[in-house]
Amino acid sequence: MNDTFRSHLLEIIELNEAEYEVIQRYFSSFKFRKHQFVIQENQHVEHMYFVSEGLLKCGLIDAAGKEHILQFACTDWWISDFQAYFRQEPSTLAVQCLSDAELIGISYRDMEALCAQLPKMEHFFRVKSNFGYIALQKRIVSLMSHSARERYDTFLNQYPDLVRKISKQLLANYLGVSRETLSRMQM
Fold it and tell me: What domains lie within the chain, and their CATH numbers?
């Protein structure tokens, strides 16, 4: 595990060395290459992942062949098909690397065991889930009630570094607009 992961935990919970050693035993490290899938649709989702390094996208391709991006994840963020992970059912989303990535993952079974052994980790995961729920709610409200221009401006303000790391097509897919509409907004 690395200092980024430890610092991430310490933002929410206090840990001593012995507790951190316990936590480390439940997580595994993974390395993926650019364009590699971490999760594919209709696959059993074994882990949720903390991004130690890299950039990933999570989304799906609909019946018409259009890509819809639910989220991006860069260093210090979590990613998975959370519905499939928590319900232990086949995935409906795919997670793919947009750059080489180093991830730290925990299986559902190990997360349950870790939380039973170290209850403060249950608090940590609850807080992270709440933050994720809030972000998802904001995203849905934005898609329902804001113009494409407002969504674009919000993304630029919230993630100025991310805009430079993703293609215009991926950003358009995330915003729910065509590539041409995005180009007009960027003029």
Answer: 3-117 (2.60.120.10)
0.85 cut: is pTM over it?
A: yes
| CB contact at 8 A, 159 and 174 | no
8 Å CB contact between 128 and 122:
no
Secondary structure E strands in the chain: 28-32, 37-39, 47-53, 55-61, 67-74, 78-79, 94-97, 101-107
Collapsed DSSP state (helix, strand, coil) of residue 36: coil
For every one of its 187 residues, what pLDDT tens digit does the chain have, with 9 covering 90 and above?
A: 678 899 999 999 999 999 999 999 999 999 999 999 999 999 999 999 999 999 999 999 999 999 999 999 999 999 999 999 999 999 999 999 999 999 999 999 999 999 999 999 999 999 999 999 999 999 999 999 999 999 999 999 999 999 889 999 999 999 999 889 888 888 7
Of 38, 3, 9, the closest CA to residue 23 belongs to 9
Backbone angles phi, psi at 184, to 5 degrees: -65, -35
Half-sphere exposure of 119 (CA within 13 A, CB side): 0
Helix (H), strand (E) at residue 150: helix 148-158
Please give the order of strands across the beta sheet that includes 78-79. 28-32, 101-107, 47-53, 78-79
